[in-house]
């Protein structure tokens, strides 16, 4: 398997390797608060120290590290502006399953960019040999849940009390799954519908 983060293109977006500054723009806000989890939904500047440390040896070294870890990490660009990212987090080669995660800068919410970008990433992951894609969201993260529902992901498992919120409440995580077979069936139907309009 080649773990190179290759360039992917959609109708409106380009997904490719990003620079440190691109990641800093994408992760500008504290996404835990922005997701509305546990009643939080406010624009709060995030701590950028982690991202700075990812790139302390430069972009090339960062992507060498992702390849070694069997990961991909795409920045999503709209008209050359970095607006979000999609990355893979874990894989199981025995079942040919990979897990993805994503985030989108709040200035770009509500335009269908994340389903569009995620669809392209899913096509690519199935093309290179994966049979299943898992993606999750936390209780209260309605926007991520809607993206996954729109794409047709099915419930897979619930992780009770996965983490503790800033308010001290335990938050459940939900994992969803899409098989290659279901995706191809779904996208073929979508293509036929588009073709008949």
Overview of this structure, please?
The chain is of the alpha+beta class and 197 residues long. It has a single domain (8-195), classed as Aminopeptidase (3-Layer(aba) Sandwich), CATH 3.40.630.30. The chain has helices at 20-26, 31-34, 49-54, 59-68, 113-127, 142-151, 180-195; strands spanning 8-9, 14-16, 73-78, 81-92, 97-104, 132-138, 154-164, 170-179. Strands 1-2-3-4-5-6-8-7 form an 8-stranded mixed β-sheet, with helices on both faces. The protein is globular.
Helix proportion: 25-40%
CATH H-level superfamily: Gcn5-related N-acetyltransferase (GNAT)
Give the low-confidence spans.
193-197
Q: Distance between the terminal alpha carbons, to the nearest Å? A: 38 Å
Strand tally is: 8
Strand order of the largest sheet: 1-2-3-4-5-6-8-7
**In one word, what is the shape?**
globular
- Backbone structural class: alpha+beta
How many domains would you count in the coordinates? 1
Tell me the CATH architecture. Answer: 3-Layer(aba) Sandwich
Sheet-strand content, in percent, reads 25-35%
What is the fold-level CATH name, i.e. the topology?
Answer: Aminopeptidase
| Helix segment tally | 7
Biggest beta sheet summary: 8 strands, mixed
Whole-angstrom Rg: 17 Å
Average the pLDDT over all residues and give the rounded result: 90
* Element-by-element helix/strand order: EEHHHHEEEHEHEEH
